[in-house]
Amino acid sequence: MGDQDDHDGGLGCCGFVLMGLSIFIIIIFFPFSLCFSIKVVQEYERAVIFRLGRVLSGGAKGPGLFFVFPCVDEFKKVDMRTVAFDVPPQEILTKDSVTVSVDAVVYARVFDATLSVCNVEDAFKSTKLLAATTLRNILGTKIMSELLTDRDVISESMQTMLDEATDPWGIKVERVEMKDVRLPVQLQRAMAAEAESSREARAKVVAAEGEQKAARALKEAADVITESPAAMQLRYLQTLNGIAAERNSTIIFPLPIDMLQSLIKR
Predict the structure, then answer these.
(1) Where would you find this protein in the cell (predicted)?
(2) Phi then psi for 35, rounded to 5 degrees?
(3) Fold of the 83-185 domain
(4) pLDDT tens by residue, 98-107
(5) Domain range summary for the chain, segments of one domain joined by +
(6) From CA 21, how far away is CA 25, in angstroms rounded?
(7) For residues 101 and 94, what is the distance between their CA atoms, to the nearest angstrom?
(8) How confident is the model at residue 250, as a pLDDT?
(9) How many Å apart are CA 131 and CA 127, to the nearest integer?
(10) pTM for the whole thing?
């Protein structure tokens, strides 16, 4: 049989003999042979049929009902739904020499059933292993702070790389998400101490700014009181009024301030 026959899926002489034998078996054991010949493919499935080792023309079949020849045809069902699988935690050394443990989740689906069966043994298992390797390669080029702040960017980069690599396998990687980034305990303590020190420093700065504003306000008030003697007397009376309102007691105070000032001058 020539190359053209191989490309067209020609059966050759032996193939036609086997096909005739298969039809003969179906006729002899009819109707029991229908249980082995009629197959049903669900809406979310596709069937890849091999006839004497060759994929039938037209690609995957389904959904619906189709007929296979016993002893000649072999078929494999492929689930076309999106599958989510976890990438095991990976111990990664970042660019700034920090060891972290990172795990992720990958969402993928089969877009070509024939490629997923013919080009790779286990499409989803291979995608899972490739995702673990890609995760280590990408995170090894990042510093620790980027792992904590740029998760979306890292996830998009990983999704793009995986999608390109799994395209020959008939797999479409729809989404990649980093689940957790676990830091060493000592590093967590150091980061917590650094954050607490930073908060204390900001609190001291705010308190100092408040004291500065209060001192400036007191200075302005003192300047106003110095310029007007009547303002001093009013402030004196307001202080007495406040003391009388807070405490229920008798207060004895000397002569008015203006009389005391005149006596002091004399």
Answers:
(1) Membrane
(2) -65, -30
(3) Tetrahydropterin Synthase; Chain A (3.30.479)
(4) 888 888 999 9
(5) 3-79, 83-185, 222-266
(6) 6
(7) 10
(8) 63
(9) 6
(10) 0.63
Report the C-alpha gap between 59 and 38 in whole angstroms: 18
Which amino acid is residue 14, in one-letter code? Answer: C
- Distance separating alpha carbons of residues 35 and 217, to the nearest angstrom: 97
Other CB atoms within 10 A of residue 237 CB: 12
Of 43, 117, 124, nearest to 78 by C-alpha is 117
Location of structure tokens 């049989």: 1
Residue 143 has pLDDT above 70, yes or no: yes
> For residue 116, what are the CA distances in angstroms to 35, 121, 168?
27, 8, 8
Compute the distance between CA of residue 56 and CA of residue 1 in angstroms, rounded to an integer.
17
CB-count exposure of residue 183 (10 Å: 0-12, 13-18, 19+) = middle
Residue 262 has pLDDT above 90, yes or no: no
Maximum CA pair distance of the chain? Answer: 143
Amino acid at 24: F
Lowest mean pLDDT among 2-11, 134-143, 152-161: 2-11
